[in-house]
Amino acid sequence: MAPTLAVQLRHAADCVRAVEKGQSLGDALPRVPEALRPGVQALAFHVLRHLGAARAALQALAPRKPEAPVQALLHSALALLVSDEPTPGASYAPHTVVDQAVEAAKLSRGTQRAAGFVNAVLRRWLRERSELLVRLQKQPVARWNHPAWWIDRLRTDHPDGWEAVLAANNRPGPMTLRINRRRIARSDYQQRLTEQGLASRVVGEDGLELLDARPVSALPGFEQGWFAVQDAAAQMAAPLLLAGRTWSPADRVLDACAAPGGKTAHLLEHADLDLLALDVDARRCERIRENLQRLGLVAEVKAADAGRPADWWDGLPFDAILLDAPCTASGIVRRHPDVRWLRRPGDVEQLAQIQQTLLEALWPLLKPGGRLLYATCSVFRAEGASQVAAFLARHSDAVAGPAPGHLLPGNAGRNGEFADNPSGGQDGFFYARLDKRAP
């Protein structure tokens, strides 16, 4: 029997409360019973994509802040009521949402006594919905479902595209596969999908975007390493780093912040390389190894801090370096809707400093004539264009090579300053290629 909405709301509210306490949704979801997890995740994603409006609605309906468990439940229920989008996995009438939210309150010791309060607040929403929606549209955080500082920074960074970026962030991203060209041709794999009734379209050099997402276990060839799940924007890294020259097993390549290994694997699918994959987290290094093994690829994987070469570098320079640097993840919000609520304004500058430290540490490890591809899954200029401009000003031996710069999520930049963005539904990203002058 399928779980009731009340049961799913209870667990979704627990996840939302965890995010509001500063925990990632990825840490909260494993605490949900496994059988309930897919439905609760879909519901939690929906809530987090409408949390700004839900918070503003609760403030209007109940100015006195309720206790945290009650607040999280009300935020979850209101997120279903403020949105005109279909509820994930089902379609619930507003009165059903109210009824099931009250039942959800009765399921938890922390909210049992507030069941009547939950009922009163949500029924008031039903009575005053039209008037309240007009009020919410006048509040930027409620309208765009992002923190005020995030909206302000995005408006400054992308004056012609900020609204489209925010709108794209509130829509789920497509499921995109990277076809392992060493195992199967993309055209052959697309034919296999078609034979199973799964429609797809070609993106980039190796990608297929599914028109309807499916669990990887339902797709042909996962265990055989025929494909990996990777967004179209992330699939640009390997072609950008390797473009324009012939590579051999003697070429030393560093993937400096490699986990979970998608870009490492893509590099090896394109060329035989002497590749070192680093990540500071030993557990995440195991994930890299597992992914490479499934795809039939080989690289040296080492747990180390890329910013401290003295701890791991053997003194032999690299022909190419991929630095997919730690960042705010502001470009992948549609896949990780909790990110916007977890980040704080100071995080941008703090992470930009880490990115600068990594660039300065790795640049001396690159051969003259070599290339470094700098990447972040961020739409903020401090982590992209501004970071690279400052690096070029500091290093006279660095030259900007061909790279797309800032990519905006979805089709946000199609008619703005990024008119050459690919037309697909890629995540937000930044790429810059830095070539080291030969003597």
From TrEMBL:
Pfam families: Methyltr_RsmB-F (PF01189), NusB (PF01029), RsmF-B_ferredox (PF22458)
Biological processes, Gene Ontology terms: methylation
Binding site for S-adenosyl-L-methionine: C257, A258, A259, P260, G261, G262, K263, D279, D305, D324
E.C. number: 2.1.1.176
UniProt main location, coarse: cytoplasm
All residue ranges annotated as the SAM-dependent MTase RsmB/NOP-type domain in the record: 165-437
Keyword terms of this UniProt record: Cytoplasm, Methyltransferase, RNA-binding, rRNA processing, S-adenosyl-L-methionine, Transferase
Subcellular location, record wording: Cytoplasm
Location of the active site: C377
InterPro entries the record matches: MeTrfase_RsmB-F_NOP2_cat (IPR049560), MeTrfase_RsmB-F_NOP2_dom (IPR001678), NusB-like_sf (IPR035926), NusB_RsmB_TIM44 (IPR006027), RCMT (IPR023267), rRNA_ssu_MeTfrase_B (IPR004573), RsmB-like_ferredoxin (IPR054728), RsmB/NOL1/NOP2-like_CS (IPR018314)
GO MF annotation list: methyltransferase activity
Catalytic activity, as annotated: cytidine(967) in 16S rRNA + S-adenosyl-L-methionine = 5-methylcytidine(967) in 16S rRNA + S-adenosyl-L-homocysteine + H(+)
Annotated NCBIfam families: PRK10901.1 (NF008149), rsmB (TIGR00563)
Functional summary from the UniProt entry: Specifically methylates the cytosine at position 967 (m5C967) of 16S rRNA.
Similarity section: Belongs to the class I-like SAM-binding methyltransferase superfamily. RsmB/NOP family.
Protein's name in the database: 16S rRNA (cytosine(967)-C(5))-methyltransferase
Organism name: Hydrogenophaga electricum
